[in-house]
Specification:
Blueprint lengths: L6 H18 L2 H16 L10 H15 L13 H8 L3 H15 L18 H4 E4 L2 E4 L5 H9 L7 H6 L1
Antiparallel strand pairs: 1-2
Amino acid sequence: MMSKQVEPRYLEITALIDRVCRQYLNEEYAEMGRKLAARLAQKSPSPLLRGRPEVWACAIVYAIGTVNFLFSPSFEPYLSAEELCQAFGVKKNTGSNKAVQIRKMFGMRYMTPEWTLPSHIIRNHLVWLVIMDGMLVDIRDMPREVQELAYKQGLIPYIPADREKS
């Protein structure tokens, strides 16, 4: 739960995130940005109370973008780090440095399942690897019954065949 002291800053930061994500990225980035901003707001003391809101908003999206290959032209959406920081009115080094702090704070690395965009989950092999009988297997290659069991146990976010149908 975030304190009353932090809430106005959180709302200011998430408004900036929403504006930039709607203009340059997509709703997935906005949702993930709000989630990460909330996690930062709930820390005690919240780091969001120090520094400019634009820097925090930029760094939050930058951190999520790093995990999801935002800066790689082979992924959609694509935006260069320079363009992202410009959209927030922040210098690239400032946005990048703060994003590194955030990533360290939450153990965010490339393809970290918790911070992977929903549209990228199916391509994130880390999400689908499960240990069965002492062997690491890709659950997507297993029978549906096994996938259903893994889903019920919270090991995978959804049953892949169900998403392929829709």
